[in-house]
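Database export, one record per block. Field names are fixed; values are copied verbatim from the stored entry.
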Amino acid sequence: MTFQTSRFARAAALVCERDGVNLAGLNDAELVELQRELGEVARAQAVLNAEVAGEIAARAAANPGPGSIARKVGFRNEKQLIAETLGTSAGQAGLLLEAGKGLKQADAEASQVQQSPGRELAGREAPGREAPGWPLAAAALRDGAITVDKFEVITKTLTILEADAEGERQFVELARRLKIYDLKRVCDREIKLGDPGGAEARERRQYESRYLRLFEDMHGMTVVEGKLDPASAGHFKAWLDKQVRAAFQAKRENSTDVRTADQIRVDALAMLAHHAMDCEAPGSGVKTTLVVRASLEELREGVGFGECDALGGPMSVGTLRAMCADAQVVPMVLGGGSVPLDVGYAKRLATPYQRLAIAERDGGCAWCHAPVSFCDVHHIESWLDGGPTDLNNLVMLCVSCHHSMHYGRWRIEVEGGVVWFTPPPEVDPTRTRRKGGLAHLALDSRT
């Protein structure tokens, strides 16, 4: 592995040119630009850190035990060595180690292919192969197109899926355009869909591993610790999200409520406990609907995947059936005659069925992918200006993105069931539009 510092040097040189500058004298644009330059320095240095970590890992593997590279200089293992010498966390050191191993493996395979053309495909299909290299992902990392954490996520996914070169290309393109949180969601989904037989077994293990503990710390505060299986978490999270959303809506009219979202969750749980202990009222808190999605055929057969609005990623239909066993099942017909999805100008607000349809299309906030429970359905062309309450004139957005789009003069369109966002010229002079909603998270989506 050749140690190349040219990218880091270029980025560092731009920052060093500002040596001695008075930060308070910079205008907003200059200060943001300086922050971007520092970010590029950090990303370029992370690649160098990963490459050195990869070499350390290789030497540790070749010479383990008391004589290993880490033990010789007083560290338990290579992760501690990297964390201590870089002044970072053990988690970040582990990330650099994994990325470094991936870069080193990709370089080794590239060298083999150069020496023996046509060997790459045979190598990837060889039985018992542990860690294939991913040259496109490695090149994207070194070029600055993706970050170290994105590289680690997609290479791990590619290895699990035993992807080919085309699959690698698709995931690299995905990593280029998605934020790390959304990238992890898509990769998790693809891994689960690639192993349908193991989904229910995995969810059964999750159910058996659920736990909740409460204990007091030295300050007299009760600490809550636990893990919830998907079926339990779906109901719990959907109810809590609804309480938070309702409280924030009420805060618009009651400015004296200064609670944070975390504090609202605590109050909601306390209210639920009080209600369960001694209350004859019919309910507690804001009524919540838990939405789960799966095709009618899959629900009947009990095989396949579906989704729950309150959780990210697919779930086995068996788990979804257990979640909605006591709930009314509402069939969703998109564009069919049995449910009036398009109500034209007759109604200003989206109907419950329309909200379900929009949630199915957009998957939450069509721009930032916030959960459905955090979002409202908005008219693209205002109803007051003659905009119809039809699917092609409705989009699901969280409050923050709705304000950003409205005041930032973004253009939103719906074509063929896909939401498109076009930025104003001050954001992007080319005004290149981008897919929104679930289409933006699709593996082979084009921007």
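Remark 1: The beta strands are 211-216, 222-227, 292-293, 305-308, 315-316, 375-379, 394-398, 411-415, 418-422, 434-435.
Remark 2: The radius of gyration is 26 Å.
End of record.
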